[in-house]
Specification:
Blueprint (H helix, E strand, L loop, with lengths): L7 H12 L2 E2 H8 L3 H13 L3 E3 L14 E4 L5 E7 L3 E8 L4 E8 L5 H19 L5 E6 L2 E3 L3 E5 L4 E4 L1 H9 L3 E5 H12 L8 E6 L3 E7 L2 E2 L30 H5 L1 H12 L8 H4 L2 H5 L1 H25 L3 E5 L3 H6 L1 H10 L10 E3 L4 H20 L3
The chain binds zinc ion.
Zinc ion binds next to helix 7.
Amino acid sequence: MEGAGRSLGARALLSLICAGPMSRAELGRRLGLSAATTTRTVRPLIEASLVEEGPPAQAGGPGRPTRLLAVVPTSATVVGIKLTDDRLYAVLTDALGQVLAGASRPLTVTDPHSVTTLIASVVTRLARRSDRRPDAIGIALGAAVVERRTVVVASFLGWRDVPLADMVGEATSLPCVVANDVRAFAYAESWYGTGHGHDPFALVTFGAGIGCGIAVGGEVVSGARGAAGSVGHLPVAPSGPSCEIGHAGCARALASTAAILRAAAEHLGCEPEELSVERLLSPQLREHPGIDEVLRRAALAAGRVVGSLIAYVDPELVVVSGEGVAVLEAYRETFEEEIAGLRHWTAAPVPVLLRPFEFDEWARGAAALALERWALVAGDR
Ligand SMILES: [Zn+2]
């Protein structure tokens, strides 16, 4: 996402964080550097205790034993934060993205200043758990974000043009970056998750919103205005119900959590607030033909979104996550048939992985952004 202008040291550090331990020769190959330049690049990183060299190991073939370079896990700690409309989730990770501690707080007031104050207090508490000042903060939320700093629009919080990175940076005196949550999640997944080693890689999420992140060459496409991957309002069934801004049968109107609960509540004659996706998936409620239809329609809509994405991008792997994954698991056949139906007749099927969902994973995505920020500065010293 911040490809231009990285120093060699920063690129080397990032490669080792993203791809794990590797030999000098492998690192040189990845960065397109000669052996001498690789050695010159790595030396200051080792001297600064950011990178360590393992004991000599035989690489399986003939020749000299190689020593693997690895990032020192304790060389950094970062905080990753995910904001939802009613809760804040935070994790503290080490330099390899391993979670050291987590925290979660209700979000009772959502104006930018109150949220900034809450973030600062959670960061302080997490810092105490690790007994050191974090090196950077990453924040992810369901919003369009530009330049990793400014939230352009976050409708679920009622925000417009909020310079969140600067506000949190000032409140904590720590470097802070902000990004769209789905793209941050896609970033973490392509760094050290299921997407690792798959290029291009796409992550699609179904939940309160519907979005996707597309990673190409290890970078997640952000778009000219920070809005790449906003697939929620694509039309999927023109005769379907309308979304909150009046599109008939867009993906959001059929497959977002609120839409599913609203449609189910109409069938059951109750309020959407009394329901949950989990309850709808219980055997008793699924037997209700109206509920079965609502859930099947959501799986079909999700299949159309994923199938279209595959047609546009031809990814090596698609990971689907978010709380809506439970519906797709229950209606997997409908979901997969829809994807298969959209496939070009000469194209090979693309593997689509359903990934169980945890809010911590979102926060971990935000931590990956913070780690990148740290590596860019630390590797440059
Ligand atoms: Zn819509």
